[in-house]
Specification:
Blueprint (H helix, E strand, L loop, with lengths): L1 E8 L5 H7 L1 H9 L3 E8 L6 E8 L2 H9 L12 E8 L7
Antiparallel strand pairs: 1-3, 1-4, 2-3
Length: about 90
């Protein structure tokens, strides 16, 4: 399993516009083979922060989705991004 997680930072006044612009990407990802979860969401405390969380069955599924032509959203500038890929070897109840 692959998890992509982190944050994007935008101008607070641009956050809603960014999230609206990428809504179709989210819909397509969630329909993609091997996608277990996909979300870009506003942080409830920091108006400049967007939380990124994706969960995929494998690198192959992730790469296939990223290589598929899709929407080209008109997004406002992202000032910084700290997003990482994690390889999960096991899953258990919390």
């Amino acid at each position: 399993m692959i998890i992509i997680a982190g944050e994007l930072r935008v101008e607070p006044s641009d956050r809603d516009r960014y999230l609206t612009a990428v809504a179709d990407v989210t819909r397509l990802a969630r329909q993609a083979d091997g996608c277990l979860d996909f979300v870009q969401a506003p942080d409830p405390l920091d108006p400049a922060r967007i939380t990124v969380y994706e969960r995929w069955e494998s690198d192959e599924h992730l790469d296939r989705f990223r290589g598929t032509p899709g929407p080209d959203p008109d997004v406002p500038p992202v000032h910084s991004a700290d997003v990482r890929k994690y390889r999960i070897s096991g899953v258990e109840q919390p």
